[in-house]
């Protein structure tokens, strides 16, 4: 069971690394949480959980725009980690519930800020690669320019892959160990936290309507509808 789960973590890390490449290569918005999380959920057989998690995280940091030198928290890595951990942990525990989702969000939100540091490191390395490519161009070394150009996305993929694998496996181990031992009061607190997340996200979205038009409103309405569906389903 442990070996199979580790192989699944490697597969998730590979797919997550490819998704995160969209942040620097094509930039077609695939790496946005509202898309990345459902893609990961579809890969793991639970797109609905991915939709919920993606909407949560999309709203959490929607006010942090990558303008100028500002590097926002890495919401792509966070969305992938939360989705994969929630689904895989639920399978190991034997059932999937909103308490597991709330707990996964709680333990992985800090990864967004750690991922932010990772991107700062990548940018510093990428600047050195750019200078090396210019040096090769001055020498008419086309192969050198091409290699430096290709090394940049490869580095980002390796960093993203390693980051996901480094945090996903321990997170699943912690969740599957602690969750069955939680008291009913802790489970009730996690259940309440699950319904607090959309309120927090919608509050952030309302504060950014003038920045992103109807996108936060759409995400907020979708998230509210999904939470209501989850609530009535639980009843």
Automatic annotation (TrEMBL):
InterPro entries: PTS_IIC_man (IPR004700). It is a multi-pass membrane protein. This is PTS system, mannose-specific IIC component. It comes from the Bacteria. GO terms for biological process: phosphoenolpyruvate-dependent sugar phosphotransferase system. Keywords: Cell membrane, Membrane, Phosphotransferase system, Sugar transport, Transmembrane, Transmembrane helix, Transport. The keyword Membrane applies. GO terms for cellular component: plasma membrane. The chain crosses the membrane at residues 6-25, 37-57, 77-93, 154-178, 190-209, 215-232. The keyword Transport applies. It is found in: Cell membrane.
